[in-house]
């Protein structure tokens, strides 16, 4: 039996592991996209390939990682979840490329309300009043953040297209949360097998667009430019691929070792650190509107977590499969799926 002191240390280590992986993922992603803004799809494709390679390497280390058999029938059934996953990842990457690191969490602030809406439509179940209040608070925070502000110079104002990227990314992540639950039975209820299918399928879907956009040739041109630092792109791909893989493990461990509320508070702390580091590292602008927006979005999200924890605690316990699929994701997506874990009808992120 684990003593309270050992348990406390274990929780602290997992939380720090999650926060570190999440912060590294966001800022290295942003650094690479700043360094190579013309090849975002190729950058994403490389991350997916690294995730698949690491999954195969993991089979040599532990028997818990099982690579599924490639079957045409299974592939057809998983097309919807794979398609939604890659579209969401593409919009997510484009959004991060076009906005500041501190504004990124505002641009994608509608994940929770959209997840609640998609879940309600899918389950034909009307959310409770307290859940709707939480969604409304988050929506208000999003509106505050994207509203024009006289203190933000024109060159620092996010474009309408970048906001659309953020909204579409949030929408597809919300749909993805529902499709994961429906797709797990096709993978023997194994989140790792689903992760393999998702990464491999997403890479196959993405490859033609990378070629059509001529990104390999653009990369070749960039390497001939003496002013371009290719080391940033190379190391960025390796680091984000590796930490993206670790982040999925971190999200899973955070759910298993910590409580939902502890996880959400650690996510809130990470958001604050992300904001501060965005200002210090990239010189991002942080005015009153953006600060209030981040605060209100976090407030609504934490209130939602508390509400769902209370509602879940009042219901009979149920047996579920593992919560978060081990797949190549950025930190926001893992947090979103962890939030979905609070939903009784949702999966059980990343």
UniProtKB/TrEMBL annotation:
Pfam families: TPT. It comes from the Eukaryota. The chain crosses the membrane at residues 12-33, 39-57, 78-94, 106-124, 131-148, 160-182, 194-212, 232-255. The keyword Lyase does not apply. The keyword Transmembrane applies. Residues 311-350 are annotated as: Disordered. Signal peptide: none annotated. Residues 10-304 form the Sugar phosphate transporter domain. Coiled coil: none annotated. GO terms for cellular component: membrane. It is a multi-pass membrane protein. Keywords: Membrane, Transmembrane, Transmembrane helix. InterPro entries: EmrE-like, Sugar_P_trans_dom, TPT_transporter. It is found in: Membrane. Its main location: membrane. This is Sugar phosphate transporter domain-containing protein. The lineage of its organism: Eukaryota, Fungi, Dikarya, Basidiomycota, Agaricomycotina.
């Amino acid at each position: 039996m684990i003593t309270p002191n050992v348990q406390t240390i274990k929780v602290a280590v997992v939380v720090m592991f999650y926060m570190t992986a999440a912060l590294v993922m966001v800022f290295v992603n942003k650094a690479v996209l700043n360094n190579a803004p013309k090849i975002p799809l190729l950058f994403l494709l490389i991350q997916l390939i690294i995730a698949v390679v690491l999954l195969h390497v993991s089979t040599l280390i532990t028997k818990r990682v099982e690579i599924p058999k490639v079957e045409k029938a299974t592939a057809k059934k998983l097309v919807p979840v794979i398609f939604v996953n890659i579209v969401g990842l593409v919009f997510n990457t484009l959004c991060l490329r076009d906005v500041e690191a501190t504004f990124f969490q505002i641009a994608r602030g509608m994940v929770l309300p959209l997840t609640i809406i998609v879940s309600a439509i899918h389950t034909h179940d009307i959310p409770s009043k307290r859940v709707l209040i939480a969604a409304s608070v988050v929506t208000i925070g999003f509106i505050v953040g994207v509203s024009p502000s006289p203190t933000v110079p024109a060159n620092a104002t996010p474009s309408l297209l970048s906001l659309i990227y953020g909204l579409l990314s949030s929408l597809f992540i919300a749909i993805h949360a529902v499709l994961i639950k429906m797709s797990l039975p096709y993978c023997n209820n194994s989140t790792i097998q689903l992760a393999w299918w998702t990464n491999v399928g997403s890479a196959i879907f993405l490859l033609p667009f990378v070629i059509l956009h001529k990104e390999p040739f653009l990369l070749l041109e960039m390497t001939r430019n003496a002013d371009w630092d290719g080391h940033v792109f190379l190391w960025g791909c390796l680091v984000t691929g590796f930490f993206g893989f670790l982040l999925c493990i971190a999200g899973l461990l955070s759910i298993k070792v910590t409580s939902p509320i502890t996880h959400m508070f650690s996510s809130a702390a990470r958001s604050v650190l992300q904001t501060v580091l965005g200002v210090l590292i990239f010189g991002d602008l942080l005015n009153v509107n953006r600060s209030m927006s981040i605060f209100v979005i976090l407030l609504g999200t934490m209130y939602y977590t508390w509400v769902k924890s209370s509602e879940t605690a009042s219901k009979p316990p149920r047996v579920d499969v593992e919560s978060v699929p081990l797949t190549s994701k950025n930190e926001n997506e893992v947090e979103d799926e962890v939030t979905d874990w609070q939903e009784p009808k949702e999966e059980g992120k990343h």
